Every structure is written in structure tokens, then in C-alpha cells.
Amino acid sequence: xxxxxxxxxxxxxxxxxxxxxxxxxxxxxxxxxxxxxxxxxxxxxxxxxxxxxxxxxxxxxxxxxxxxxxxxxxxxxxxxxxxxxxxxxxxxxxxxxxxxxxxxxxxxxxxxxxxxxxxxxxxxxxxxxxxxxxxxxxxxxxxxxxxxxxxxxxxxxxxxxxxxxxxxxxxxxxxxxxxxxxxxxxxxxxxxxxxxxxxx
Length: 200
Description:
The protein has helices at about 5, 10-30, 40-45, 50-55, 60-85, 90-105, 110-115, 125-145, 155-170, 175-190. α2 crosses α3 (about 40-45) and α6 (about 90-105) crosses α9. It has 10 helices and no strands. The protein is mainly alpha-helical. The longest helix has 26 residues, at about 60-85.
């Protein structure tokens, strides 16, 4: 006769299920965007809704787990920039490009990222705050070297980048929208003169 303890999934099984759901969710987000239904994710993963919600009680929790899994990629970008770029202006530009790519990972991602900044206890908030803290460091270096305007915060650049990504993803946007908006954002933080960002 099976005992209750033996019938319960082991911690290893639970971790394996969680990792599998995250991998399937990442594929689902890539195919259909972050608004894909939780039921669709459960079906793709071959698990019941109860199992899915036991691991991820909300869509935002699932999005947060998927983005956390992508964080090492962004961390590698940070290390590569810091190790390979001595010009603080260029370093800031490269970091903002990396953040932009991070935000563009899935269709519809800008909305939950924006919501995470105003909702206390959001599962996505720690990831957003980590990105903002790193942006602050790159910005502070550019400000110290006279390449970026004083009074601008990393949070401002994060939100500006998020706005650019959101606008570029709208149905009415054409291929030139993102480049134009990125130029506008850069003109808002970069100082003119030697070392200022060149127009492209």
C-alpha cells in the first residue's frame, strides 16, 4: 500500500516540474506573447492547472520566473560592457541597448514591466529594480565624466527605454519609430560637445 509520504512528489520532482513549466512558458511567450493564457501554458507543459498555479499563482509570477531565467544573459552583457568599454558614454549607450533587447524579449512584455514598478510586492519588481540599479551605475559614471546631464536618474532612463520599446511594438509603428525615439531619448541625457553621442 502506498503511504501518503511516498505518494507526494519529491522536492527534485517539484523542481523539475517548475523548470519544465518555465521552459515551456518561455516558448509560449515567444510564440504568442506574454498574454498567452495560463491554461494554454499548462496544456503545452502537459500539467494540470493545479500544478501550474501551485508553482506560479499568477501570470505575473510566471513572467517573473521566465525573466529571472533570462537575467544571466543581461548580467553577461553588463560584465562584457564593463570589462571592454572604457568610454562611459558608450558604456551607458550599450547598456541601454541591452536593456532594450531584454524588454523586447516577448510581445506585450512592456506592460507587466511597467506595472511592476507601481505595485508593491510584484514578483517582477526585484528584476526591474536590479536593472534600474545597474543603469544608475552606468549613468553615474557618464555624469561624472561629463557625458550625461546631471539630475537624470537610472529610473528615468529605464522608463524612457521601456516607453520606446512599448511604442515600437504598437500596430501603428513602422520600422523607423524605434530608432527615432531612441535618438530622442539619447538627446535628453547626452551632453553636447566632445564625447557626446553622435547622430546615426
